[in-house]
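Q: What residues go here?
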C-alpha cells in the first residue's frame, strides 16, 4: 500500500530555520517541533505519531532530529515500523521498513550512537566555553527576570499574604519563577 510522505522536523531554537531540513524533499504533510532534543515534550512528534497510517513514509533530516538518544531512536523506529511505516533518514541515507536485515539494525545502532556521541561532545565544548568565559568575566548567564527592587516587592507582598498567582501575573513571570525568587535569599 502506497501512503503519504510525512515530514518531521525539529529545531532546537526559534531562530533556526526548519525549512532547511527538508527543503529538497517533497512531503504531503509536515510536523515541526521547536524544542531541544532532550525535551520529552515534543507535541508535534506526538501529533505526527497519531496522524501517520500504515503504508506512510516518515521523512526526517537526520536521526538526531527524531530522537534524544540511542534508546529513544530504537524505540521510535521500532514503534513506527511495527505499524507498517517506512522511516527515511535523509542525511544518513538510511530507510527502515520493519523487514530490516541485521545489517540495517547494526547501521541504526552505529549511526544513532554517533549522533549521541556528537551531542555529548557539543555539550562538553559548551560547558568548557562557558567556564572559560566565566574566568574572563565575559559570561554572565541569563538575564534575571526580576530586578532587585521587584524581588524585594514580591517578597514583601507574598509575605503579606497576596496571591502568588496574581503576583506572578502582575510581574510577568511564571509561578515557578516566582517561587524560585521566594525560595532564594540573594
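A:
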Amino acid at each position: 500500500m502506497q501512503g503519504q510522505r510525512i515530514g518531521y522536523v525539529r529545531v532546537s531554537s526559534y531562530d533556526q530555520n526548519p525549512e532547511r531540513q527538508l527543503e529538497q524533499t517533497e512531503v504531503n504533510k509536515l510536523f515541526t517541533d521547536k524544542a531541544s532534543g532532550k525535551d520529552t515534550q515534543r507535541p508535534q512528534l506526538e501529533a505526527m505519531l497519531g496522524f501517520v497510517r500504515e503504508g506512510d513514509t516518515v521523512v526526517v533530516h537526520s536521526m538526531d532530529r527524531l530522537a534524544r538518544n540511542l534508546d529513544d531512536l530504537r524505540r521510535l523506529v521500532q514503534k513506527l515500523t511495527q505499524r507498517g511505516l517506512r522511516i527515511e533518514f535523509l542525511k544518513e541515507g538510511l530507510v527502515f521498513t520493519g523487514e530490516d536485515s541485521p545489517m540495517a539494525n547494526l547501521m541504526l545502532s552505529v549511526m544513532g550512537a554517533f549522533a549521541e556521541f556528537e551531542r555529548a561532545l557539543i555539550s562538553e565544548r559548551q560547558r568548557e566555553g562557558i567556564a572559560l568565559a566565566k574566568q574572563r568575566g565575559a559570561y554572565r548567564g541569563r538575564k534575571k527576570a526580576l530586578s532587585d527592587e521587584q524581588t524585594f516587592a514580591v517578597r514583601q507582598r507574598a509575605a503579606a499574604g497576596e496571591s502568588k498567582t496574581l503576583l506572578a501575573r502582575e510581574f510577568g513571570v511564571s509561578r515557578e519563577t516566582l517561587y524560585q525568587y521566594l525560595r532564594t535569599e540573594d
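A: Context that may help when evaluating the design: The helical segments are 43-51, 63-66, 70-82, 102-136, 148-159, 164-171, 175-183. The first strand starts at residue 5 and ends at 11.
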